Amino acid sequence: MDTPPLALTPPRTRPALGTVAEFLKPITWFPPMWAFACGVVASGQNLSEQLGLLLLGLVLTGPLVCASSQAVNDWFDRHVDAINEPQRPIPSGRMPGRWGLGIAIGWTVLSLLWATLMGPWGFAACALAIVLSWAYSAPPVRLKNNGWWGNSACALSYEGLAWLTGTAVMLGGAWPGFHSLALALLFSVGAHGIMTLNDFKAIEGDRRMGVASLPVQLGAQGAAKAACLFMLVPQGVVAACLLNWQLPWHAAAVLVLGLMQWPLMARFLRQPVERALSLSAFGVPLFVSGMMVSAWGLRQLQQMGAA
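Given the sequence above, the corresponding structure tokens read:
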């Protein structure tokens, strides 16, 4: 008796909705949304009166701009991901054809359209973030090919630019003051170290595909030291700034949060590749908590008329 032939599953021609959601990586939306919220708090404006603008900004920074940057990155990183993380939507075949590129372009356009609701500053900041996200991933620029430049672009976009956008839109488009500019820049420097933590999981694929991430350039141990310095030093400077601005309790809180990261970093330095995810999971929340503490400090200065 002949065995009937096995039924072949037809090749997928479009991604499932769950795959699209995975492709846009909601877990990555938190940092820029948090930074935007910090900028809003630091503006000193009445939050209840500007709730609509706050919600518009949170949607823009997370589900739109950040999601579009993730789509762009996954499309142009599909060959590297085939080595490092073959289960991702594109290399696994769950995101077939050029759907990845189409979603990246569509989400970019949607982000720019949404940004028009937030005035000239909001639109300009969104456009700059979009330019940085494409420059980070897409040739011929592909800043990601050098960890120093690529991580700087991500850190500036995710933290500093989002913070300053939150402050500026709440101030009706006015240029943020010196205090916000200083803290946004300092936390962007710290975020450079956080971005380096993400590169430890991709060392082999990056090396084979010519991506000079910091772990590839400096080795795992050297990159781990650089990441820790980039994270810790700016927090110390922020604490010094807050103390100089007559905010001793906020300065002390930022300093304590920074010191709490040190035991995690010590373990990370002993086993960089194995412990990078642990430092991201437990150390980064302490880092971003210091951002919000600093933002409330600036809010107090605003209300005292000192900033």
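The radius of gyration is 21 Å. Try to locate this feature in the token string yourself.
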